[in-house]
């Protein structure tokens, strides 16, 4: 299916032309018929060839209804621009063109209507002059009369050829901007809109943004025909299960779960803007129109704070309109849906400089290089990568994070310094705790510490992060006490000393932790310490038992007490050496 929006001044014959092409009445309301003008969005469709259906979104041309026009033009990328031969280019013609130019609509047909009332030549020349320098310059022109039928055949042929040249929809997750909501007896809530990307099928669960409300697709219609599935681009009526018609309205969107995040603040590149903009404007994107607060960052960059969050991706285009002056003041391209805070003097100017160097369609590599490190889910919800997309080979992938290689090496070096500084200040400490290490080294997420310790040539164990060579020098009394403990364990490998033994020898928890760090002892659990080779011996003895075995059988094989046997078995479970079958029995893996 192809979806085309109409554009042009009020009463230039847009609805009449759509009716002549489709045989359908696009005007929705009795008020529209009475006044002879389109107030709200109308829809009609026809087959221009044997394969594809073409739907027309008929938008109002009157100044008072420009916001409705923007709701119709926003979700589509092709236009039928209408200018009357007897009136020529008018005020709303210019405003509609400004909107289409800012939205980067580059595909269209110029139709000169009412050529039975006037020579279309002057209107064509005037329109071409106005179109020059926009994305619609040079589009094909057809002169018609919907009354006499003159030129309608040529227009159908031109539209057919034109639609065949339209680019395929940009790949992406499903999003349908809602332009109507109503109830149908026996079916419930139905919304209509243009599916500009992705696929929707009966039974799908979608999210209604910005509320995040989960809804289910109960049924689908495309141009009044029931379908099980629809691919972009398509005009759809979606029967929803899970909410009433009063809970959904124009400007909301049905989106694929996990593919969009509601955006409340974003940095944008401005298009055809003045040197400055009013602080309060209305933002139009898709079918949404929301108040925004504008903070100028530079001549062509601004930060927009939305009164209502919207599901947006980087690279999308929208409009800023001054409702008081009743004019579009700027178009914009979304550059960053996760902008940094601006606190210090000069932050805005520096931010504008960075934004000026950013691409309108950022890549994964662009975003990772710019941010240093970013979660995969953020790039998915920002529209920079797909949920299943692979990161470039030049990017470090660590769990949910994508990290620039330079930043990764900087983090590793900072981690080494933090561990070295900790070791000097805490000579008997088993190691630097991971959370503290992340703070000291400026690492975004403590969960990255595991991968970074290997990069930094460090060791991470239950005692924290330490160097491979600890350099611990025990005081002589401590060294003698540890030698006595080790001698006893060599005689009885699983006869772990108790708390009273350590107290008698003058060994504190800090001493024992340092002994573990130095490789002198192995910590099984709090208060249970063995020699480093005891784990391998414990497993060897368990293998010799008939499988499965009980705690009592393991205790006998080790020649120890339950105080040692129970935590040692739990430790082996955690290490994956043994596996519980039930509350009483285990096996060696």
UniProtKB/TrEMBL annotation:
Q: Which UniProt keywords apply?
A: Cytoplasm, Elongation factor, GTP-binding, Nucleotide-binding, Protein biosynthesis
One function term, GO molecular function aspect? translation elongation factor activity
Q: NCBIfam families annotated for this entry? A: selB
The gene is selB
Q: Which Pfam families match?
A: Beta-barrel_SelB, GTP_EFTU, GTP_EFTU_D2, WHD_3rd_SelB
Q: Where, per UniProt, does this protein localize?
A: Cytoplasm
Per the entry, what this protein does is: Translation factor necessary for the incorporation of selenocysteine into proteins. It probably replaces EF-Tu for the insertion of selenocysteine directed by the UGA codon. SelB binds GTP and GDP.
Top-rank taxon of the source lineage equals: Bacteria
Alphabetical list of PANTHER family matching this protein? ELONGATION FACTOR TU, MITOCHONDRIAL, ELONGATION FACTOR TU-RELATED
Q: What's this protein's name?
A: Selenocysteine-specific elongation factor
> Origin organism of this chain?
Actinoplanes sandaracinus
């Amino acid at each position: 299916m192809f979806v085309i929006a109409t554009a042009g001044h009020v009463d230039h014959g847009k609805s009449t032309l759509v009716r002549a092409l489709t045989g359908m009445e696009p005007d929705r309301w009795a008020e529209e018929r009475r006044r002879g003008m389109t107030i709200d969005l109308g829809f009609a469709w026809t087959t221009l060839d044997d394969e594809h259906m073409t739907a027309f979104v008929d938008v109002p041309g009157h100044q008072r209804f420009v916001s409705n026009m923007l709701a119709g033009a926003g979700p589509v990328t092709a236009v039928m621009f209408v200018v009357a031969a007897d009136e020529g280019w008018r005020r709303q013609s210019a405003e509609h063109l400004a909107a289409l130019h800012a939205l980067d609509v580059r595909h269209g047909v110029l139709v000169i209507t009412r050529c039975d009332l006037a020579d279309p030549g002057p209107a064509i020349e005037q329109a071409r002059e106005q179109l020059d320098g926009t994305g619609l310059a040079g589009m094909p022109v057809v002169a018609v009369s919907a009354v006499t039928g003159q030129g309608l055949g040529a227009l159908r042929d031109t539209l057919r050829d034109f639609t065949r040249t339209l680019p395929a929809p940009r790949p992406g997750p499903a999003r349908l901007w809602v332009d109507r909501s109503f109830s149908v007896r026996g079916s419930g809530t139905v919304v209509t809109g243009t599916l500009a990307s992705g696929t929707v099928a009966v039974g799908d669960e979608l999210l209604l943004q910005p509320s995040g409300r989960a809804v289910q697709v109960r049924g689908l219609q495309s141009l009044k025909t029931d379908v099980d599935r629809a691919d972009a681009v398509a005009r759809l009526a979606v029967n929803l299960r899970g909410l009433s018609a009063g809970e959904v309205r124009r400007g909301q969107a049905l989106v694929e779960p996990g593919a969009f995040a509601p955006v409340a603040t974003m940095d944008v590149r401005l298009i055809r803007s003045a040197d400055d903009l009013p602080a309060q404007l209305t933002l139009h994107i898709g079918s949404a129109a929301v108040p925004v607060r504008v903070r100028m960052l530079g001549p062509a960059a601004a930060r927009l704070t939305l009164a209502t969050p919207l599901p947006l991706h980087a690279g999308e285009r929208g409009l800023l309109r001054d409702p008081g002056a009743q004019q579009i003041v700027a178009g914009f391209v979304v550059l960053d849906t996760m902008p940094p805070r601006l606190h210090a003097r000069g932050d805005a100017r520096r931010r504008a400089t960075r934004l000026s160097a950013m691409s309108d369609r950022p890549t994964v590599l662009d975003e990772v290089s710019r941010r240093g490190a970013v979660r995969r889910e953020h790039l998915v919800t920002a529209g920079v990568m797909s949920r299943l997309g692979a990161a470039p080979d030049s990017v470090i992938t660590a769990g949910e994070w994508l990290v620039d290689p330079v930043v990764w090496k900087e983090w590793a070096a900072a981690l080494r310094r933090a561990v070295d500084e900790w070791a000097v200040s805490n000579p008997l400490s088993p190691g630097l705790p991971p959370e503290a290490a992340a703070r000291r080294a400026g690492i975004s997420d403590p969960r990255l510490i595991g991968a970074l310790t290997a990069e930094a040539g460090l060791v991470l164990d239950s005692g924290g992060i330490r160097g491979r060579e600890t350099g611990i020098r025990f005081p002589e009394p401590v060294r003698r006490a540890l030698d006595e403990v080790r001698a006893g364990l060599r005689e009885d490998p699983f006869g772990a000393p108790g708390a009273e033994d350590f107290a008698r020898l003058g060994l504190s928890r800090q001493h024992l932790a340092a002994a573990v760090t130095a490789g002198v002892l192995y910590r099984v659990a709090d208060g249970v310490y063995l020699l480093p080779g005891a784990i391998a011996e414990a497993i060897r003895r368990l293998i010799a038992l008939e499988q499965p075995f009980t705690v009592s059988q393991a205790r006998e094989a080790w020649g120890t007490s339950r105080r040692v046997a129970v935590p040692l078995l739990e430790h082996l479970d955690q290490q994956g050496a043994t596996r519980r079958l039930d509350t009483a029995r285990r096996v060696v893996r």
